[in-house]
Amino acid sequence: MIVDVHGIGYLVTVGNRTLAELGTVGERVRLYTYTYVREDALGLFGFRSQDELTFFKLLLSVKGIGPKAALAILSRAELRVLKRAILQEDAALLATIPGIGPKTAARVVLELKGKLKQEMFGEEAKIPAPGGVDAVAQALQVLTGLGYAPAEAKEAVRKATAGNGGNHSVEQLVTVALKGLDRG
Question: Tens of pLDDT along 22-55?
């Protein structure tokens, strides 16, 4: 698509999901862009949100994933669904994308799972919360952010807090809760 910025047209490559969300020709649009520069190529890629742009950059960090493949992955499903699939080690969803085979999908999951955990949990994931109250609230927030209903997230976290005297980190709670939700 071509975006007119004060009389200058920029060719911006966007994914199918982003294109569908944009208005009609002539309407104002706000895109977060990434400039891809290589010795033999120059490309501008556009995204509707900062989160999509950040995830795009994460995808580019995976060996074998270029900008077109990363855009295809982002176009496959909503961002929260993609993040959930990676955290649950569901490479099958990624393998359904044209140009992404099972080995590449597995590599994406392997390389991004830790980075996503770090992005979502930060340093507090390494330190168990005293009393577990803050960890439970944060785990609920992460699960609802991934698209789970508050009721099912609460039940999954309740089951995840069993054992270990209730002393869990946010990362531990979310990991166990996701496994329980995946079975359900």
Answer: 878 888 889 999 999 989 989 999 999 999 999 9
* Domain segments of the chain as ranges: 2-120, 127-183
Of 63, 61, 60, 81, the C-alpha closest to 71 is: 60
Query: Regarding the domain delimited by 2-120, which CATH topology (the fold level of the hierarchy) does it fall under?
Result: DNA polymerase; domain 1 (1.10.150)
CATH topology of domain 127-183: Helicase, Ruva Protein; domain 3 (1.10.8)
What are the strands, taking DSSP E only, across the chain? 2-5, 8-11, 32-38, 41-47
Whether residue 128 contacts residue 97, with contact meaning beta carbons closer than 8 Å, is answered with: no
| Residue 26 CA: distances (Å) to CA of 5, 23, 94, 103, 125 | 12, 8, 34, 42, 46
Q: Do residues 53 and 92 make contact, with C-beta atoms less than 8 angstroms apart? A: no
> CA 73, CA 154: separation in Å to the nearest integer?
30
Which of 86, 82, 92 shows the shortest CA–CA distance to 147? 82
Tokens 């490309």, residue located: 43
Q: Provide the pLDDT confidence category of residue 71 given band limits of 50, 70 and 90.
A: very high
